[in-house]
């Protein structure tokens, strides 16, 4: 049998679907999995889905030897120790110049450590973020490869065909940059995804709890929103969710789903990185906190008994106005959330010297991935206008959009507060905007307090230098 073009190890949801996608694009592929039944399952699926050129192997040596040189093997296994174990299994059979690509949601420093270790053995290494879940992997994901440029060049032709294709802006893949940059960018993509999902959930909560919209009204509203500036995968699936009836009982399925959100860690890493880099990311942080609070279901049930009462302000609500206000608030909040995500990436890029192209990242997120949205085109254009943009908020187009929407945005946040409905993401976005746009913040007082109790010194607005005041003595003297 002729050698295959590429190999893929790890045939759970992502690996199996990506392997079929690669084969469908005309690249014969060898596949391997620790548990061999998944190998047979994948080969059978490949047959059923059009006799795709997928070749299964039950042992790593024959798997590796079935691939043409220089060999490229994509791994899609659980992040962490399983990746190290799979590398050890594969590397025993790989030769100088071969390449390993980790397609999992890996911590970027692990990728950098492995890239170095592989280099010492003459192997190339890439850490490639893959977004789009099962469907994306099968039909076109957004791919974020970082690490060895030489390795990227080996497989660029495959990636360009396998990635989601967006008319007018091309395949959703680009060489991200050196080291762990591909994993880092994928991590922040997931953080932004947390923010988007939280903001949509808050829009739902305000419309349902204050506006009293039914599920079928919500389905209509979200379908309508999906025709305009909010057009995106997440708005589309949200509209679908509101239309699904419960097959096991009365009513709609969404109302039967337990209000407890799971998570796998990339959102937490994003927030930790934001803190490490001293970048404010309050919307993404609020989305993470909301997941933590959602997990306290039993405590919340008990607290709801202690804090019983009618929190609604009882005022009549103009439904049409509310729907339009919430739409605008959601859009404005989303701009702030993306601004935060982009700033985390920008700060890391300059810390690590990665030279990341933010506009190009927005372009490859336009298709295939979970945050795909028409809105990303506007972000790309903003960075095309000015690649050094300090913050998305000050791009002239986004600035105007925020100005046009801020009245509605403030109405929604105030209405939610007055009705006891928490909107942590929208409120955090608004506070981010209100802090960022003000030339003077109350930080002068915080700095004075720091100098008072800790002699941390302060700068002055009217003269250069570093100052310290004996605040306590001065205050007591002035009392006497
Ligand atoms: N699921 C998604 O929607 C999604 C989206 C984007 C990215 N990702 C990322 O893509 C990667 C794969 O995700 P997934 O959901 O397809 O699979 P997963 O559930 O994260 O991992 C299962 C795979 O890992 C293998 N594995 C686990 N421990 C191993 C070990 N010690 N040695 C060798 N292999 C081991 C399993 O092999 P066995 O069959 O032998 O157990 C199986 O192939 C993960 O990093 C995930 O975070 C997932």
- Label the overall shape: globular
Strand order of the largest sheet: 3-2-1-4-5-6-7
Number of strands: 9
- Tally of helical segments: 20
Query: How much is the average pLDDT?
Result: 97
- Would you list the SSEs in sequence order as H and E? EHEHEHEHEHEHEHEEHHHHHHHHHHHHH
The amount of helix comes to 55-70%
Give the ligands present. Answer: NADP nicotinamide-adenine-dinucleotide phosphate
Query: What percent strand?
Result: 5-15%
Radius of gyration: 26 Å
Stretches with pLDDT under 50, minimum 5 residues? none
Task: Describe the largest sheet.
Answer: 7 strands, mixed
How far is the N terminus from the C terminus? Answer: 97 Å
- Class from secondary-structure proportions: alpha/beta
Describe the protein's architecture and organization.
It contains 20 helices and nine strands. It has a seven-stranded mixed beta sheet with strand order 3-2-1-4-5-6-7, sandwiched between helices. A two-stranded antiparallel ribbon has the order 8-9. It is globular. The structure holds NADP nicotinamide-adenine-dinucleotide phosphate. NADP nicotinamide-adenine-dinucleotide phosphate binds next to helix 1, helix 4, strand 6 and helix 6. NADP nicotinamide-adenine-dinucleotide phosphate (NAP) binds next to helix 1, helix 4, strand 6 and helix 6.
């Amino acid at each position: 049998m002729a050698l295959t073009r590429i190999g893929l190890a790890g045939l759970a949801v992502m690996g199996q679907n990506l392997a079929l996608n690669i084969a469908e694009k005309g690249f014969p592929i060898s596949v391997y999995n620790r548990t061999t039944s998944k190998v047979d399952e994948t080969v059978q699926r490949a047959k059923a889905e059009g006799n795709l050129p997928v070749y299964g192997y039950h042992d790593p040596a024959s798997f590796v030897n079935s691939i043409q040189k220089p060999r490229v093997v994509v791994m899609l296994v659980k992040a962490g120790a399983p990746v190290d174990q799979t590398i050890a299994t594969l590397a025993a059979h790989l030769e100088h110049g071969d390449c390993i690509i980790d397609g999992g949601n890996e911590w970027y420093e692990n990728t950098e450590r492995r890239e170095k270790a592989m280099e010492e053995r003459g192997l190339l290494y890439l850490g490639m973020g893959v977004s789009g879940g099962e469907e994306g992997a099968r039909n076109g994901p957004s791919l974020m490869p970082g690490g060895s440029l030489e390795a990227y060049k080996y497989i660029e032709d495959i990636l360009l065909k396998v990635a989601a294709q967006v008319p007018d802006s091309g395949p959703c893949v680009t060489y991200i940059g050196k080291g762990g940059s591909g994993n880092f960018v994928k991590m922040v993509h997931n953080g932004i995804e947390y923010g988007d999902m939280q903001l949509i959930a808050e829009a739902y909560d305000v419309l349902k709890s204050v506006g009293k919209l039914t599920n079928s009204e919500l389905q209509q509203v979200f379908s309508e929103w999906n025709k305009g500036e909010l057009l995106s995968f997440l708005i589309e699936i949200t509209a679908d969710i509101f239309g699904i009836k419960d097959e096991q009982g009365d009513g709609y399925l969404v109302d039967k789903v337990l209000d407890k959100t799971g998570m796998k860690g990339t959102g937490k890493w994003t927030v930790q990185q934001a803190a490490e880099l001293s970048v404010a990311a309050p919307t993404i942080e609020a989305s993470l906190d909301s997941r933590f609070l959602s997990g306290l279901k039993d405590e919340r049930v008990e607290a709801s008994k202690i804090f019983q009462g009618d929190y609604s302000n009882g005022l009549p609500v103009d439904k049409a106005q509310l729907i339009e206000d919430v739409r605008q608030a959601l859009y404005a909040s989303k701009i702030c959330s993306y601004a935060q995500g982009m700033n985390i990436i920008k700060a890391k890029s300059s810390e690590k010297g990665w030279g990341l192209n933010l506009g190009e990242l927005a372009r490859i997120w336009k298709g295939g991935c979970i945050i795909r949205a028409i809105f990303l085109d506007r972000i790309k254009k903003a960075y095309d206008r000015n690649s050094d943009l300090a913050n998305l908020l000050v791009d002239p187009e986004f600035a105007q959009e925020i100005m046009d929407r801020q009245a509605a945005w403030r109405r929604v946040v105030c209405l939610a507060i007055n009705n006891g409905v928490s909107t942590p993401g929208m409120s955090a976005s608004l506070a981010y905007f209100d802090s960022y746009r003000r030339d003077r913040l109350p930080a002068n007082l915080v700095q004075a307090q720091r100098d008072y109790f800790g002699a941390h010194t302060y700068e002055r607005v009217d003269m250069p230098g570093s100052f310290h005041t004996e605040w306590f003595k001065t205050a007591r003297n002035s009392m006497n």
